[in-house]
Design goal:
Blueprint lengths: L1 H12 L10 E2 L6 E2 L7 E2 L11 E2 L2 H6 L1 E2 L9 E2 L2 H6 L3 E2 L4 E3 L11
Parallel strand pairs: 4-8
Antiparallel strand pairs: 1-2, 3-4, 5-6, 7-8
The protein binds zinc ion (ZN) (2 copies).
């Protein structure tokens, strides 16, 4: 009963990109990631200035950027510690996924 209910929640919340092939590799860190449009993808480091983390969904990738958009360049990536503090986890493929919502979120 409990297992079934938990499974149902996982299904409901599962990111749509869970089964994407990891068809690209980051030249900076060597991590494989999906190049599919809604796959979240990889935050390129090196000259791109990203954090070299991969994300299961575009929503999660977007959410790992924080700070104001301004000429001073204060927009930045969350650190792994900050992402863990939000309840995010890294799955077997080394990709971050956001924590399930505690309550209904994001109005349509
Ligand atoms: Zn990043
Ligand atoms: Zn990388």
């Amino acid at each position: 009963m409990f297992e079934h209910a938990k499974h149902a929640i996982d299904e409901q919340w599962s990111d749509p990109a869970s089964d994407l092939a990891l068809d690209l590799t980051c030249p900076d860190c060597g991590q494989a990631y999906s190049g599919a449009q809604r796959g979240g993808g990889h935050c390129h480091g090196g000259k791109y200035g990203g954090c070299c983390q991969s994300f299961r969904s575009q929503r999660t990738a977007d959410a790992h950027r924080t700070g104001p958009y301004n000429p001073a360049g204060q927009r930045r990536c969350l650190t792994p510690d900050e992402m863990r503090a939000k309840g995010w986890t890294r799955d077997d493929a080394g990709m971050w996924r956001a924590a399930p919502p505690q309550q209904p979120v994001w109005p349509a």
